[in-house]
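Hypothesis: this fold can be encoded by more than one sequence.
Test: take the structure tokens below, design a sequence, compare later.
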């Protein structure tokens, strides 16, 4: 097997034959059992921006005309910049969360980034969230659930005790990673939201309109590949 086939073999060995020689038991000869059959699987693996399989939609909406007037002008730009998969996840998060929220959107981006780190699909991670149960930081949890498929019903997401922060741990098999929002981004959120509170007051319609504008901006501008600190930790 050539070097180009090694990643495919490591991710999916079902299309390969492995021969262990008696003389060298630690060496293996690996060959493709069906070269033509490898191509669709290889293309599937390389197409990392494929939408997750939908339960209801045959394909997820991307036509700008289907969205609110402040979302429509940036729809295609967001899809081009962040991909179809993130688009679907963040849209569903906002609908589930019932408003455009900053931490819920970042939670959606965080969960997808963790899935990409492990190269896994929906409902394959166990999540421990440190975001607590009090908004606005706890809104991170809604994005985590939508993006990973980890739900209370499945028993795959739990809330950690102790200090609250926009942080979560993701476990897959015997590996655990921790993601948290970069400190400068957290400070930017604090400053932006603080301005809104001082200017409009928490209970005003103007405040929530302002938060919507902020959330759209964060969704559009912040890349999931830049906004989080990631570290592996011991199980």
């Amino acid at each position: 097997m050539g070097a180009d086939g090694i990643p495919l073999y490591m991710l999916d060995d079902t299309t390969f034959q492995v021969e262990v020689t008696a003389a060298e038991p630690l060496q293996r000869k690996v060959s493709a059992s069906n070269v033509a059959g490898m191509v669709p699987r290889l293309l599937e693996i390389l197409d990392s921006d494929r939408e997750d399989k939908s339960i209801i939609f045959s394909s997820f909406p991307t036509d700008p005309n289907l969205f609110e007037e402040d979302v429509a002008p940036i729809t295609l730009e967001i899809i081009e910049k962040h991909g179809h998969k993130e688009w679907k996840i963040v849209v569903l998060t906002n609908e589930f969360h019932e408003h455009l929220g900053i931490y819920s959107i970042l939670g959606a981006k965080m969960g997808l980034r963790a899935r990409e780190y492990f190269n896994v699909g929906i409902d394959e991670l166990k999540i421990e969230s440190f975001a607590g149960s009090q908004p606005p930081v706890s809104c991170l949890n809604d994005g985590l659930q939508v993006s990973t498929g980890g739900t209370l019903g499945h028993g795959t997401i739990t809330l950690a005790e102790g200090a609250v922060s926009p942080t979560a741990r993701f476990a897959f098999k015997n590996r655990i990673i921790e993601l948290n929002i970069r400190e400068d981004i957290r400070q930017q959120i604090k400053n932006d939201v603080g301005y809104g509170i001082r200017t409009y007051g928490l209970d005003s319609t103007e405040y929530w309109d302002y938060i919507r504008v902020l959330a759209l901006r964060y969704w559009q501008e912040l890349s999931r590949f830049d906004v989080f600190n990631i570290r592996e930790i011991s199980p």
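Residues 20 and 26 are 7 Å apart (CA to CA). Residues 183-200 form the longest helix (18 residues).
Hypothesis status: open.
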